[in-house]
Each structure stands twice: as structure tokens, then as C-alpha cells.
């Protein structure tokens, strides 16, 4: 089973709201990722968690706050977002074999609209 | 700074023909190479991965890697209208120190299979 689930599928929020995106995998993967994808652009890496620890933060603004409560769950907390943050937010997971080349499997994404 | 280059297309191929998609990458230390298919509004779906020089075949798909030329390609045989999508080339590894590493994507090639 190579399933990564994400909730919600769609989210509309105002600039003063606080919301969270959730990602879950039950493949025993130890690395999880957040990507952002704008229309007609490729996915861009935001965060990498390895063994539940944040290992890569690609200079993402602090209004995005990741959290990894356990090895199966990954959250992305959103606060005071801007309209330009509207995008498809993708979660992925991989084995984390330590070779830096693990295959990543993507969830279906959360389509975020910031008004 | 890793870079991955793809021709954005559109690449138009008749049904039943071979579609050839190409990708070059800048980081000579990259270890792993992936092809994802993405339908409009959906998340990337893994098609193929390749780690070693040469060819790797899986059904109608063949991935080719030439590390000396820093070149990856994907061949799709007996192209079907359902193959019409954007194909994203992605690489990782290299400077990650062996730990989990995010993917660097090319801009994607829009493939159209004409019935």
C-alpha cells in the first residue's frame, strides 16, 4: 500500500484565520515532506521531517508552522496567510533509508485558497 | 543550487507511437532520478525511478539514465490518450549527507497523445 492521505481536500480561509492541514501515512515511512505547488509550476519543497525531527526548512515564512506528532502524522499549521499563499499543498513520505534517494509518494493534496 | 531542465512542450504524439521525454540536471552528485505523471488538478503520481546508468523498463515505460551527460529520459511505448498529462522529472540526493532529501523538480513537459 503506497497511500498517503491528506485532509481537508479543499480549504478556504481569510487572512486572519488559523487553520491546519493534516497528512497521514501507514507505510512505516520515516521521512515526510511538505511541498507547495502553484498553478502551472512544479512542486517546491517547504519542509522535510526525518525520524520525526525537522531536518530541512527551505526558508519558509513563519506563518507556516510544521509539526510531526508521530511517525505517521504530519501537520502544517497556517496563520495570517496572504492571498499569494493560495496553492496546492502536497504531502509526501519516503522510507528514509539514509541514501538520500528514497522514492517519495505523494498524497492527493489540499487545495488552499486565501481570501 | 540544483537545477532540473525540461522542455515544457506541449509535445504532441500520435496514439500508438513512442513518446520521448527528456531531462537534464545540474548537480553531478545527484543520486536518484524520478518521473512523475501529473494530471490537471491532481497530485504527482510516481511512474518510474532509476538510480544506475542504463535503461530500466516497466511495462510500456522505459527510463534511461546517463550520469556522465547528466541526462535522464522517459520513453512511453504504444502511447494512449490516457497518457496525456504533465510529466515531471525530479532528482534528489547529492548534498543531503545521506539523509532524507527533498526532490528538485523540472518544470514538467505537457504531453498530448492525439487519437
Q: Determine the N-to-C terminus distance of chain A.
A: 37 Å
| Contiguous runs where pLDDT drops below 50 for at least 5 residues of chain A | none
Order of helices and strands of chain A: EEEEEEEEEEE
Most extensive interface, chain pair and sizes = A-B, 33 and 28 residues
| Global Rg of chain A | 13 Å
User: Cα-atom Rg of chain B, whole angstroms?
Assistant: 14 Å
The class by helix and strand makeup of chain B works out as mainly beta
Oligomerization: heterodimer
Average predicted local confidence, pLDDT of chain A: 93
Describe the structure in your own words.
The complex is a heterodimer of chains A (115) and B (115). The radius of gyration of chain A is 13 Å and the shape is globular. In chain A, strand 5 (44-50) and strand 6 form a beta hairpin. Chain A is mostly beta strands and 115 residues long. Chain A has no helices and 11 strands. Chain B is an all-beta fold. In chain B, 0% of the residues lie in helices and 51% in strands. Chain B has strands at residues 4-5, 11-14, 19-25, 32-38, 45-50, 54-58, 61-66, 71-76, 85-92, 104-105, 109-114. In chain B, strands 2, 4, 5, 9, 10 and 11 form a 6-stranded mixed β-sheet that branches. Chain B is globular, with a radius of gyration of 14 Å. The termini of chain B are far apart. The mean pLDDT of chain B is 93. The interface between A and B is medium-sized, with 33 and 28 residues.
Amino acid at each position: 500500500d503506497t497511500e498517503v492521505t491528506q485532509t481537508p481536500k479543499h480549504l478556504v480561509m481569510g487572512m486572519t484565520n488559523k487553520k491546519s492541514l493534516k497528512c497521514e501515512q501507514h507505510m512505516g515511512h520515516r521521512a515526510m515532506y511538505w511541498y507547495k505547488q502553484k498553478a502551472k509550476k512544479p512542486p517546491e519543497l517547504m519542509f522535510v521531517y526525518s525520524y520525526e525531527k525537522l531536518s530541512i526548512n527551505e526558508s519558509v515564512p513563519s506563518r507556516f508552522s510544521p509539526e510531526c506528532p508521530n511517525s505517521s502524522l504530519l501537520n502544517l499549521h497556517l496563520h495570517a496567510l496572504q492571498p499569494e499563499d493560495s496553492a496546492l499543498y502536497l504531502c509526501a513520505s519516503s522510507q528514509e533509508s539514509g541514501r538520500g534517494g528514497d522514492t517519495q509518494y505523494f498524497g492527493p493534496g489540499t487545495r488552499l485558497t486565501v481570501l | 543550487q540544483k537545477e532540473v531542465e525540461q522542455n515544457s512542450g506541449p509535445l504532441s504524439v500520435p496514439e500508438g507511437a513512442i513518446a520521448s521525454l527528456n531531462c537534464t540536471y545540474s548537480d553531478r552528485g545527484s543520486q536518484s532520478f524520478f518521473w512523475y505523471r501529473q494530471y490537471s488538478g491532481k497530485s504527482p503520481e510516481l511512474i518510474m525511478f532509476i538510480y544506475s546508468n542504463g535503461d530500466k523498463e516497466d511495462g510500456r515505460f522505459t527510463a534511461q539514465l546517463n550520469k556522465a551527460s547528466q541526462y535522464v529520459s522517459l520513453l512511453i511505448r504504444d502511447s494512449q490518450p490516457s497518457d496525456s498529462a504533465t510529466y515531471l522529472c525530479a532528482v534528489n540526493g547529492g548534498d543531503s549527507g545521506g539523509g532524507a532529501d527533498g526532490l528538485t523538480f523540472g518544470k514538467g513537459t505537457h504531453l498530448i497523445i492525439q487519437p
